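TICKET: design request
STATUS: open
ATTACHED STRUCTURE:
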């Protein structure tokens, strides 16, 4: 158990240290340098993904059969609702898409982010935590770490939305959803976020609150499902009426 914790900690610390170092030495005030920094970071992101996949395969041989469509419906509905919100935001604020060159780079970068974060947080970290912790403690811990690790790239007001997004993703995983399907939807969510330029006058507070509301609705929906209630020991009581 201790070796497993040490291994996933090394993956996370190594990746975040490389990302921090790259963005520290490359001035990211303009798009050109920001893309350069992100492109270099993607190399370390790929290495972290490979290490995560190897670790997952060592503790769960079934990881190679992750491409399936079981429990895909709630994942796709959540993805659709989030995308609808983002495209509404982009339409209202006349957001302009990035050029084709930058879009290609960001597509690759976002795919790597989606796959790394799902396989690491909802894969490796989740598996290790479940060996020692209850589902309740696991889902809060994994979601909290997922939120906290974005301290260097996201403003504080987005933390509630990040925590709840991680919470929903763990629930999807508990329902049997594929990590690959979750990674793909996660990546395309990020593409809608980062591949459009938003005017300086734009305020994210209201949209972040809207994301929180969507996540809360899906948390309520997931806990209405029998497999999730059983996972957390929340069985419906049988009432008799006279």
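STATUS: resolved
RESOLUTION: sequence designed for all positions
ATTACHED SEQUENCE:
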């Amino acid at each position: 158990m201790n070796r497993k914790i040490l291994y996933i900690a090394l993956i996370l610390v190594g990746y975040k240290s490389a990302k921090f170092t790259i963005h520290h030495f490359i001035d990211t005030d303009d798009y050109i340098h920001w893309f350069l920094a992100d492109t270099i970071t993607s190399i370390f992101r790929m290495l972290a993904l490979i290490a995560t996949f190897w670790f997952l395969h060592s503790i769960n041989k079934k990881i190679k059969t992750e491409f399936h469509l079981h429990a895909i419906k709630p994942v796709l509905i959540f993805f659709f609702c989030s995308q609808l919100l983002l495209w509404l935001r982009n339409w209202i604020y006349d957001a302009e898409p990035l050029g084709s060159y930058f879009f290609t780079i960001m597509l690759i970068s976002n795919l790597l982010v989606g796959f790394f974060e799902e396989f690491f947080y909802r894969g490796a970290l989740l598996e290790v935590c479940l060996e020692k912790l209850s589902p309740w403690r696991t889902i809060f811990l994994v979601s909290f770490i997922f939120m906290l690790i974005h301290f260097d790239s996201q403003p504080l007001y987005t933390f509630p939305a990040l925590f709840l997004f991680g919470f929903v993703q763990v629930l999807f995983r508990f329902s049997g959803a594929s990590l690959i399907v979750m990674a793909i939807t996660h990546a395309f969510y990020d593409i809608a976020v980062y591949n459009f330029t938003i005017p300086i006058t734009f305020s994210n507070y209201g949209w972040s609150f809207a994301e929180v509301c969507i996540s809360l609705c899906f948390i309520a929906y997931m806990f209405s499902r029998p497999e999730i209630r059983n996972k957390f020991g929340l069985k419906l009581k049988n009432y008799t009426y006279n």
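CLOSING REMARK: Residues 66-231 form one domain. Confidence is low (pLDDT under 50) at residues 238-242.
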